[in-house]
Amino acid sequence: DVKVTQSSRYLVKRTGEKVFLECVQDMDHENMFWYRQDPGLGLRLIYFSYDVKMKEKGDIPEGYSVSREKKERFSLILESASTNQTSMYLCASSPLRTGKPYEQYFGPGTRLTVT
Amino acid sequence: QKEVEQDPGPLSVPEGAIVSLNCTYSNSAFQYFMWYRQYSRKGPELLMYTYSSGNKEDGRFTAQVDKSSKYISLFIRDSQPSDSATYLCAMSGATDSWGKLQFGAGTQVVVTP
Fold first, then answer.
1. Which residues of chain A have a Cβ shorter than 8 Å from any chain B Cβ?
2. pLDDT tens-digit map of B21-70
């Protein structure tokens, strides 16, 4: 059974802190994604990775960085958290070799509050 | 203007009714069209997946794509309270091999017993 896990369901951080969000998938998928979800805006892509140590900017990368040292793990880093980064963060993965890279599998999300 | 537009709702229907959801889009390069369902406090899960134009049926769910109008729909027949969720449309272009999706804002559906 497909599984994507995220390190925390809820997180509260202070302005200026460095924040790490971890995502692990057990499906041997090549692609991994980080989104944020805000009311009325839907899911917006922050970064994605199509291979180990490879990354590409999404639509809203400012204020974020990512790391992918192993195929199964994709980390999102908020270098200096700000209140406008309060949001639901969703990780997803998708296969490349099956020809359906559009079939994304999502984790349960991390609700981050920055105070 | 967003590439994908979706009415956020909420859409409230009685049990047994047909739920009709839709999205419009502006990018004519989109070839893959998906519907995801998201229950409260959960991540989205893929519900339906369609390539190019036409209809696709899966049990109580029917997805329609009209590329000439840049309009996609999802119909849920014989709706159940367990169908109460947020439904997100998503789409992608054929040339985008990395699987990047553009999502709509999501429509909240409430099916009342």
1. 4, 31, 33, 35, 39-45, 48, 50, 56, 58, 90, 92, 94, 96, 100-109
2. 999 999 998 988 999 999 998 999 999 989 888 899 999 999 999 999 99
Calculate how close chain A gets to B15, using CA atoms only, in Å: 26
User: Given an 8 Å threshold on Cβ–Cβ distance, is B46 in contact with A42?
Assistant: no
Distance CA(A74)–CA(A48), nearest Å, equals: 9
Query: 10 Å Cβ neighbour count for A87?
Result: 20
Read off the pLDDT band of A41 (50, 70, 90): confident
